[in-house]
Amino acid sequence: MRSSPAARNGETPPRTPGNHHHFQSTVSAHRLRRLNSLVLLLRLFSFCFSLASAVFMSTNSRRSSWLDFHPFRFVFAANAIVAAYSLVEMAFSVFEILRGTTPLPEPLQVWFDFAHDQVLAYLVLVAEGAGAAEARGLRGGDTCTAGSSFCVQADVAVALGFVGFFFLGCAALVSGFRVVSFMISGSRFNL
Fold first, then answer.
1. Residue 180: partners with Cβ closer than 8 Å, 6 or more residues away
2. DSSP labels for 128-153?
């Protein structure tokens, strides 16, 4: 392929609509890939623990049903929502790793991730707090007897939800970093 005379003489070739590539060093590209892989891993852990919490809570019905207690319904719903959101975000992360671009326009993607991470992290934290308080309150009654695994399974579901919150909170920190980087430099990753 022949180069244009301007490019051969050391001048900058004219820009055409399809000829705009952003320069990115290999070190920067490697860091971006590592950050995207970290985000994918955080989202995977958040998905696994939130799904496990929802499953533990939904299968918890020996003598009493978890449906009889509103905080346990809240724990189930919040963890199911976070698991679904984490699954969608994992797909977005895989898309970003494979294609090198975000599925949505970059400003929208940055704010979408940050806002949803924040809202859902607070949602699951409040749900787990309510579930922990309800589980503790049941200890004095006849619901939690030595032969019943209802309270133990509720405690496990709440604990799994708190671990899911931890990973979602870490993902929220990374998405907050991306928002700040985007506001400062116009790119979601500025290293």
1. none
2. HHHHHHHHHHGGGSSSS-TT--HHHH
Q: How crowded is residue 14: how many other Cβ atoms within 10 Å of its Cβ? A: 9
Question: pLDDT for 52-104, tens place per residue?
Answer: 999 988 887 666 677 778 898 899 999 999 999 999 999 999 998 898 888 99
Give the C-alpha separation, 178 to 191, whole Å: 11
Amino acid identity of residue 137, one-letter, is G
**What do you get for the CA distance between the two ends of the chain, in Å?**
35
Pick from 75, 29, 35: which is nearest to 171 by CA?
A: 35
- 104 secondary structure, DSSP code: S
143 in Cβ contact with 150 (< 8 Å): yes
Positions in the chain whose pLDDT score sits under 70: 1-27, 61-64, 142-143, 145-148, 188-191
Distance of CA 76 to the CA centre of its chain: 18
Rg (CA), the chain: 23
Which residue type occupies 190? N
CA separation (Å) from 42 to 36, 48, 109? 10, 10, 17
